[in-house]
Amino acid sequence: MNMALKQLQLSLQFGDIPHAARHRAALPRHFVARCIRHALALDAEITVRIVGEDEGRELNKGYRKKDYATNVLTFDYAQEPVVMADLVLCAPVVAREAKEQGKALAAHYAHLLVHGALHAQGWDHETSEADAEEMEAYEVEILAGLGLKNPYR
């Protein structure tokens, strides 16, 4: 992937989260922008919001009818000519998963930022096994370009 990186207008927000300093340290603005830009096929305007368990659960229940907080939610509003989306990452869920999977918090956030950015561009892993495999392979390629290991191993 030696194409030029796309332009990104990024808004990075932190809600009311436990251990906020740890999450802010894992998510410096330049890191968040770099992760997302590596996943973009078009220029984008993206808001990334880091939330606590209550806000994450409320959003997942309200929009996906699933009564639990999930690691990342993608709200995509436009895919052309500019990708416009909100990515909502639930800090306690991300931290728990990173610990369970033996990953650095920043590396897990990187994976979820890439994953969410791909969803914002129309990628979907829930449509078929083939789509899931294609999306995973692309995520692995993007993360390798960021110097990160395969998150699925």
What can be said about this structure in brief?
It contains six helices and four strands, in the order βααβαββααα. The chain has helices spanning 20-26, 29-39, 53-64, 91-101, 105-120, 129-145; strands at 8-14, 44-51, 72-78, 83-90.
What would you note in describing this structure?
The protein has 153 residues and is of the alpha/beta class. It has one domain: 3-Layer(aba) Sandwich (Collagenase (Catalytic Domain)), CATH 3.40.390.30. It is 48% helix and 20% strand. It contains 6 helices and 4 strands, in the order βααβαββααα. It has helices at residues 20-26, 29-39, 53-64, 91-101, 105-120, 129-145, and strands spanning 8-14, 44-51, 72-78, 83-90. The chain has a 4-stranded mixed sheet. A hairpin with a 4-residue loop joins β3 and β4. α2 (29-39) packs across α5 (105-120) and α5 crosses α6. It starts with 7 loop residues before the first strand and ends in an 8-residue tail after the last helix. The model has no long low-confidence stretch (mean pLDDT 96).
List the helices and strands and how they pair.
Blueprint: E1 8-14, H1 20-26, H2 29-39, E2 44-51, H3 53-64, E3 72-78, E4 83-90, H4 91-101, H5 105-120, H6 129-145
Parallel strand pairs: 1-2, 2-4
Antiparallel strand pairs: 3-4
Helix pairs in contact: 2-5, 4-5, 5-6
